[in-house]
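Complex 402.
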Amino acid sequence: MMNTPRTLPALTDLDPAALSARIASLGLPAFRAAQALDAAWRSPAKNWSEVTTLSQEVQQQLAAEFEFDSATETVRQEAEDGATTKLLLTLRDGQKIEAVLMRYPADRRKGTGPRATICVSSQAGCAVGCPFCATGELGFGRNLTSGEIQDQVRAARRILRAEDRELTNVVFMGMGEPLQNIDAVLDAVTGLTDPKRGAIGQRRIVISTSGVVPGIARLAKERPQVTLAVSLHAARNPLRDLLVPLNRKWPVEQVIAAAAAHARSTGRRTTFEVTMIDGINDRPEDAQALVSVLRGSSAHVNLIPMNAVAHTPWHESTPVRIEQIAAELRASGLSVTVRRNRGREAGAACGQLAAERAGTPPPAAVARRREQLVQASAAALQGRRTTTPIAASGPLLPESAT
Ligand code: SF4
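Predicted structure with iron/sulfur cluster bound:
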């Protein structure tokens, strides 16, 4: 069941037809809907009173019906000399989410101009519980609405507008598992790609999943131009059971088959993400397992050094080890990149800012969790599958009232 806040709808929660009908029911002309959407997507306004194309009376009428902005900027942190901006945003019911804006210079070699990518959240917290992820440790708060997802993109555009830059890409790699909130995510993609709203090309949108098999099939059918990224992290089931607990429901072979079907039906190349953890998933047998499940596919593999999360006993793989794995994969014909972790300085690992705000867990709980992870990873490395969930050590997000 999707939990939504008991508040006014966000302006961006409604599609243009529904918005027009609602505005008409207020006795206002239909063109006010177009004006409101234009202000939302193409003006620097942060609230109704700053929408200069509307009279004060109309502003007040609309403010009584819709939130102009459903994700208020609460904290902004800059990193990497301003190339990365990390946002902590507060939703209408107080839930905190994160979005990260990354700027890239023009690349003459590739013939590309300057790019700017926003990494958005699809849920407050996450129910999947990957133990290396700060969001996973926070637990699940609620699903975001379509408007709350789109409003993260609007926040990025407002920042970029002041710099005279354009937003070029959107990636669903922030807090949450997008395909466990697929209705809102697909609706948000509709808004983001609508020429009169976000006007972003479908091919410039990436949706990342930890392996929700039915969601991958639906994505292929309903948004075939959107790029699929799969957070694989391990190609051996006992290890992936631990690193991505959803693997107990949809194991490696089902996830790979769903991604392959997606690639066949859309003609789009799938990206597989592997967070590299020292001594855990960076062994020779891990490289062999990756090769055995991906060989012959057009897939691209992204190796990402793990961001240090306080409450695990784990660390990022060494650069040398990551390069060795990359070389082994390339030797088998796979396309591989080693991704630099943007925003480390700003605490940009998914959920870290929100986790900091949630408070410090008791040391005994942290120690218990670390010990549990040591034992579970030892069992997984010996090939034993486990069903025991790893306990969170931190304070969990409050689940919103329905
Ligand atoms: S890595 Fe992604 S799917 Fe896993 S807990 Fe974090 S947000 Fe959820």
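The two ends are 9 Å apart (CA to CA).
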